[in-house]
Amino acid sequence: MDWSDSPDQATFRKEVHDFIRERLPGPYRGKLEGGDGESDGETFTVGWQADRKSDDPERRDTAVQWATALAEKGWIAPHWPKEYGGAGLSVMEQFIYNQEMAKAGAPSVGGMGVSLLGPTVIVHGTDEQKEQHLPKILSGEVAWAQGYSEPGAGSDLASLQTRADRDGDDYVINGQKIWTSGAQYADWLFALVRTDPEAPKHRGISFITMDITTPGITVRPLTDMGWNQPFNETFFEDVRVPARNLVGDENRGWYIGMTLLDFERSGISGAVEYQRTLDNLIEFLGSDEGTEVTRQDLDTVRLEIADRRIETEILFNFAFRIVSMQNRGMVPNYEASVNKLFGSELHQRLSRTGNKAFGLYGNLWDREVGPMGAHFVRDYIGSVPHTIFSGSSEIQRNVIATRGLGLPRG
C-alpha cells in the first residue's frame, strides 16, 4: 500500500477540501469548526434525510442547499458512473472524497438510495427503472429505506416470511419488516419478499421497490434506549405494487440483495470519524473546562485512550487495504468483514473509554450540562446495535473463519 497522494490525488484532495469549506451550509459546520455538529436526537440519528422533512424551515433549506451544492459537482453519487449521473470517480478519488467529508463531518446526501439502491438498479434494473429512480436520487428529491429484517428473520434473513403474491399486473404484499432505518423520512422502500413459499428459502425471494405512501403500508417508529427513533417497524396489509417494480428476475432477489450488501459493507469513513472524536476528547481533557469534569484518577484511563488511538490507525489501514485492493481490480471479500467487525467493536470501546474519562459526570445526559455536549454517554447508548446491524459480529467472524482462514463450516 502507498499511503502518500500522487500529484493528481493531492490536487483532487485540495479541490474537495476547498469545496467543503466554501459550500457546506452554516448549520452543518459544527463539526467543521470543532463542535460535535449535533442539534437534537433526530439530526444525530438520521442527518440529512431527516432534515429534508423537518418541520423547521431552516433545516429543510439547509438540506436543499447542501444537496444542490453536491449535485453541481456530481458528488451526491461520486461512485456512480458518469453515464448514470454520478461523478465516475476512481477508487482512490472516492477514498479521498469520503475521507475529506468525514474529516469535516459533512453529511452525505441520498442515503440508501445512493449507497445501496442506486448501484443495484444500475446493475440489475431495467432501462425504465433507471430512468424512473436514478435522477430523483441524484437530485436529493427521493430518499429510500431498506425493508429486509423481520421479527423472525434478522441474522437469518433468508427465512423471511413477508409474502408477495402475483395478481394480474400487481403483487399483493402482506407481512412485517422491522429495524427499517429512516423509513419515517423516506419516500420509497426497497424490500425482499417471498414470492415462492415452496422453493428452498434462498430461491423463493424477490427484490421489489414501492412508494412508501402506497395504501396498506404503515410505518411505526420505534424508540430506542437513547430516546431516539432511528428505525421503525413497517406493516404491509394487502399492499398492491406494480409487477414492473420487480428488480431483476422473480425468485432471484436473494442474489440481487447480496449484491446490494456488497456495496454496504465497504465503508471507509468510520476510521476518520473515530479519529476526529478521539482528537476532540484529548483536546477537551487538556482544557480548563475539561479539567473541571475529568475524573481525578485519569491515569487509569490514559492507557485506554492510547489503545484507542492505535486502534483507530489500525482501522484506517484496514479500510485503506480494501481501497488498495479495489484500486488493483480485486474484489474484497472477508477483508470487508474484518473491517466491519473491528470498526463496530472499536466504536463501542471508544464510547466506553470517552465516557469513563469523566467519571460520574459521564452520567449526565443533558447536552447543556454534560461534558462535550454529553456526546460520549449518548454514543455509549447509540453504539450498542453497531455489532448487530449490517451483519452481526458473529456473522462476520463466520465469514472471516470460512472465507479468510479456510476453516470448515461447523
Describe this structure in words.
It contains 14 helices and eight strands. Helix 6 (111-124) packs antiparallel against helix 7 and helix 9 (270-285) packs antiparallel against helix 11 (299-327). The chain has a four-stranded mixed beta sheet. With 410 residues, the protein is an alpha+beta fold. The chain has three domains: 7-109, Butyryl-Coa Dehydrogenase, subunit A, domain 1 (Orthogonal Bundle); 144-251, Butyryl-CoA Dehydrogenase, subunit A, domain 2 (Beta Barrel); 265-404, Butyryl-CoA Dehydrogenase, subunit A, domain 3 (Up-down Bundle), CATH 1.20.140. The radius of gyration is 22 Å and the shape is globular.
Topology diagram in text:
Elements: H1 7-23, H2 41-46, H3 48-51, H4 57-73, H5 91-104, H6 111-124, H7 127-138, E1 144-147, E2 163-167, E3 170-178, E4 188-194, E5 205-211, E6 217-222, E7 231-242, E8 246-247, H8 253-264, H9 270-285, H10 288-293, H11 299-327, H12 334-356, H13 375-382, H14 393-404
Parallel strand pairs: 1-4
Antiparallel strand pairs: 2-3, 3-7, 4-5, 5-8, 6-7
Helix pairs in contact: 1-5, 6-7, 6-8, 9-11, 9-12, 11-12, 12-13, 12-14
